[in-house]
Design brief:
Mean pLDDT: 96
Number of helices: 17
Oligomer: single chain
Strand content: 15-25%
Radius of gyration: 21 Å
Largest sheet: 9 strands, parallel
Number of strands: 16
Distance between the termini: 38 Å
Helix content: 25-40%
């Protein structure tokens, strides 16, 4: 057994609905993890030490906070190398930057190199689980899954499916896309902690036949996930409507192929029409809000208040590489500002929920991750309140857990992540971090 003593906080439900009763907080807490990587106890240190103290390897962290591992619900692994490429708007950004970069991922060795950087950055930033887009190439997802399996990370990923309206280097034959997706599913789905997501990039880049192939895969493998984009940008929406002129709206295309009747993640959803809000609210789908990406590309401001009024699950995604940081703390910081502009104020407990349990609920894994309750998988992060001189000063002025948490989420980045654990095994240690990629 291993025991970790520090301040501890996690969510048991959505604070926007249940308030502070959904927050579990121990100012002097103890997390106990067994050799199988499961949490066996979490609570007040003085109480738990009486029961477990003699049977544990003991680790104490002063001025630190233990939280569940962060869950990134929308990110593009092949865009790791193009973060902060000059923005433009979505469609021109895809044409001029994204697609040329993604062409390189037909090469397995290249894909492995970038996958290593990608996963290293996730762990450095405290992200233990992610829902990931690969490129159109099978090699890209093979590489990502191969390294994720070695690290025992919980990764849900799929190869992008695009058979029209994109450059030749990232376009594939419709049947080939279906066959290669099936090969990846058979090889990787449910292997270790890995899962597969059927991944049509967005409606305009897939033919009717390709979307119908996605439906067939989802029917053949009922426990697969579905991920795609929806209503990110006005120009994109117009493009989709021209591509599918007989459909009532963007979301109705996905509904035609039964994408809403399962755990599905739709990234962005900034400009939904009234009928789309209604349709989404009656589905099993969730929204991934990607604030740094939405600001960087000038796509618009996501309406959190409206999504809550329709009771649609929302989590956070970094959306690398239109997103500008791997840090989920920085991602929440921008989400907070976006809602402030619209008259909605998120608090620190909201932020913790959006970064952890909300993502777990979106992928129907809240019984395994996103929390620190006994019996769940020991994916957790140890955050340093005093990671910079200013943060140490600022933390000294905080009187409550909410004050400490909120300032940490607003000011924190990868420097605040002291250690990251996957199934109870340390996978990142700030004190030994000297990564170089060149």
């Amino acid at each position: 057994m291993d025991a970790y003593r520090a301040e501890i906080i996690y969510c048991t439900n959505d604070p926007s609905k249940f308030g502070e009763s959904s927050i579990c907080h121990f100012e002097d807490g103890l997390l106990v993890v067994n050799s199988s990587g499961e949490i066996v106890a979490c609570g007040e240190a003085k109480t738990l030490l009486k029961e477990w103290g003699g049977n544990c390897s003991y680790n104490e962290y002063k001025n630190h906070l233990i939280v569940p591992g962060f869950i990134d619900s929308h990110i593009h692994f092949p865009q790791t190398e193009m973060l902060a490429a000059h923005g433009e708007q979505l469609l021109s950004w895809l044409e001029n930057y994204t697609y040329p970069v993604e062409e390189n991922f037909c090469d397995k060795s290249y894909s492995l190199k970038i996958a290593n950087i990608f996963l290293t950055e996730l762990l450095k930033n405290g992200t233990t689980s992610a829902v990931v887009f690969g490129s159109v190439h099978k090699e890209s997802v093979d590489a990502l899954f191969e390294l994720s399996y070695e690290k025992n990370m919980r990764i849900i990923a799929g190869k992008a499916l695009m058979d029209r309206n994109v450059p030749f280097g990232v376009r594939e034959n419709t049947l080939d896309g279906f066959i290669k997706s099936k090969e990846l599913i058979d090889q990787w789905h449910n292997k270790g902690r890995l899962s597969y997501a059927v991944t049509p990039r967005f409606a305009a880049s897939s033919s009717y036949e390709q979307l119908d192939g996605c439906k067939k895969l989802l029917n053949d493998y009922p426990d697969l996930y579905l991920q795609t984009h929806l209503s990110e940008n006005h120009e994109e929406i117009d493009f989709v409507k021209k591509t599918y002129p007989t459909f009532q709206n963007y979301l109705s295309i996905y509904d035609e192929f039964d994408f809403l009747g399962r755990p599905s993640i739709f990234a962005h959803c900034i400009h939904l029409e009234k009928k789309e809000w209604d349709l989404m609210s009656n589905s099993k789908a969730a929204i991934s809000h990607c604030p740094t990406s939405n600001l960087f590309l000038g796509s618009g401001l996501f309406d959190m208040k409206k999504s809550r009024s329709f009771d649609i699950p929302v989590s956070l995604g970094t959306d690398i590489g239109a997103g500008t940081s791997f840090s989920m703390m920085q991602t929440f910081s921008e989400a907070y500002k976006i809602q402030q502009l619209q008259g909605t104020s998120l608090n620190g407990f909201d932020g913790l929920y959006l970064m952890t349990l909300a993502g777990a609920k979106a992928i129907n894994l809240d019984h395994r991750i996103g929390t620190l309750e006994a019996g769940t998988e020991a994916d957790f992060v140890i955050l340093n309140y005093n990671s910079t001189p200013y943060m140490e000063f600022r933390n000294s002025k905080c009187d409550t857990i909410h004050d400490r948490l909120f300032s940490l989420l607003m000011l924190g980045d990868d420097r605040a992540v002291s250690e990251t654990y996957i199934m109870g095994k340390k996978k990142f240690d700030q004190s030994n971090c000297n990564d170089t990629y060149l």
